[in-house]
Amino acid sequence: MQTISSPKTKQVLSASGEVEAVLVKPDSLLSKLSDMPLWELAFRPWFLAATLSSVLSIAAWLLFLHGQLPSLATTGLSPVVWHIHEMLFGFAATIAVGFLLTAAQTWTNRRSINGLPLIALTLIWLAVRGLLWSNDPKLQLAAVALQASWWLISIGYLANMVIKAKSNRNYQFIPLLTAMMSFNIGFLLADINGYTELAMHLSRCAILLFCLLVGIIGGRVIPFFTGRGAENAKVKSTPQLDKWLPWVSLLGLAVFFSGYFIELPFTPATLLILAGVMHLLRLLNWNSLATLKVPLLWSLHGSYLALALGLIALGTSYHIDALRFADALHLITVGTLGAMILAMIARVSLGHTGRPLKPHFSINIAFMLILAGALARVILPLAQQPILAWDISATCWVVAFSLFIWHYSLILMRPRPN
């Protein structure tokens, strides 16, 4: 059949020899937008948006600490709560959910969120970023409602995929993300209603929950990637540690959470230290030295080491006054969450767009900057240099993730190479 086309109609020569004019419906703007590579899977827009948001948020926080952004104290959430929320939920949780929604497509062989639904969910995420600056109680509650809807839709998509595929191994992520959502919403409502200390406590609980999540995901991917990507790596399995570590972590979180509301005869210090030691023993079986020539691997091992040391430091802070709990916590938020996220998004962004797993050399520098910033944030306050610690840590973060944005923006927005 021969066709002669015009912008509005298509003339079709039928088998009987007659010419028939068929109206062709042009693609809509939304259809063209949703077909862009950026909306192919959740990792593309969310890795890009969350990292850019983190750079801007850290820059704003540093300006505020130096008295250059006083408006941060007069709009929206309490300044420290805003800082925590944007880094913990606006950044880390967004990356984690984007990663899980992307990985779930591989786990289940089912199509993950994409196209128009992904665009809508991203717009919800962006709206929350803006509304949290408002002093209007109605707009603040709108931000909370939108944040809750972002969580519910994301968890709903993940749950639908793993349950329909009967992917039993991944059911655990549904209650974990639901608990994270609960801490997030409780955190926002607490500060909006004037309970900033409660909000701070809930954020710390969320960080300990992240430690559990990192232990699960890291326990899967780090030894697997190491065995495949490091030359002569001898990775040993740790079935007993894998079995008991989540329970020790969960018990430590439960004790820490409860201690704010009821007086307990003990602290979570021992459980936090025990969890840290167990992570350390786990890491010793993963042959970290074999990864030193592979940046995408030693960065993962370094971030996991920061998790082990961070939990040990948190527990130790209950016994040593010079080591503040908040400073020790940053070894986890910067050294574990920041470094592991950077390592994972650098790897996933290449692998899931069909590119070789060889990041630009400057990304290797970014890995080192994040880990150096984490160490500075914890060590310098011990030397009575807290402001210098903030400056170095924040600068390392901004430079490291700016390098990611510089080298990965086009990769995330372009189609897979042929």
What's this model, at a glance?
The protein is mainly alpha-helical and 418 residues long. The chain is built from 13 helices and three strands, in the order βββααααααααααααα. The protein has a three-stranded antiparallel beta sheet with strand order 1-2-3, with no helix packed on it.
Task: Describe what you observe in this structure.
- Helix content is 71%, strand content 3%.
- Strands 1-2-3 form a three-stranded antiparallel sheet, with no helix packed on it.
- It has 13 helices and three strands, in the order E-E-E-H-H-H-H-H-H-H-H-H-H-H-H-H.
- The N terminus is likely disordered.
- It starts with a strand and ends in a 5-residue tail after the last helix.
- The protein is mainly alpha-helical and 418 residues long.
Largest sheet: 3 strands, antiparallel
Quaternary state of the chains: single chain
Order of strands, widest sheet: 1-2-3
Low-confidence stretches: 1-7, 10-19
Shape: globular
Distance between the termini: 30 Å
The number of helical segments is 13
Q: Tell me the structural class.
A: mainly alpha
Question: Mean of residue pLDDT?
Answer: 91
Compute the CA-based radius of gyration. Answer: 24 Å
Fraction of residues in β-strands:
under 5%
Give the SSE order as H and E letters.
EEEHHHHHHHHHHHHH
Count of strand segments: 3
Topology:
Layout: E1 3-5, E2 9-13, E3 19-23, H1 29-34, H2 43-65, H3 79-108, H4 115-131, H5 137-164, H6 173-192, H7 196-229, H8 239-259, H9 269-284, H10 295-317, H11 325-351, H12 361-382, H13 386-413
Antiparallel strand pairs: 1-2, 2-3
